[in-house]
Design goal:
By secondary structure, the chain is α/β, with parallel strands linked by helices. The protein folds into 2 domains: about 1-35; about 45-184, Vaccinia Virus protein VP39 (Rossmann fold), CATH 3.40.50.150. The protein has 5 helices and 7 strands, in the order H-H-E-H-E-H-E-E-H-E-E-E. It has helices at about 1-35, 45-50, 70-80, 95-105, 135-150; strands at about 60-65, 85-90, 110-115, 130, 155-160, 170, 180-184. It has a 7-stranded mixed β-sheet, covered by helices on one side. The protein is elongated and about 65 Å long.
Amino acid sequence: MWYKAGLAFLIIFLIIAIIVTIYYFIYAIRISLSKSKKAPYISTFDRHLTIMKNLEIKPNATMVDLGCWDGKALRFFSKEHKLKLWEWYDINLYAILKGKRLNRHHHITNINLYKKNLFAADLKKYDYIYVYLRDSQLAYIEDRVFENKKKETIIISNSFQFSKHKPYKTYKNNKWFETIFLYK
């Protein structure tokens, strides 16, 4: 008899998980097709990480990920480049919970997650700012980011460029169309 209750619980859990997944999939598509200031939740692809292996990141540096989704880029930077402090800001509770679960799975304990708007970040305390946002979202945050960072802070933009500033360095993957832009 107990197995029937367990099976019923499992079926209910799967139905809820499927509904939540469909909801976030539809939400991501709606946001990505709109001109909204909200960012679509798209994880950094492994082919982007391949390009970012070539970045010259200072040891013991600090980094923030603005609009991070699940924090894949920060986990990459924490393993590959040995930063001193990693933080990420996102307003999506689902993304934060998924990021925390993935951090536990990868045994990463020194990343701070904040369920806050990215404008709550004190950008002057970071050596690197990582963004993977569409051009419309970059245009929305551009003035705030460039006016409130330290002079020597490097901004790493995945795939999209800021409209008012020119990158000082660009990394391209010839096999794909992915590009990483660096700004000062």
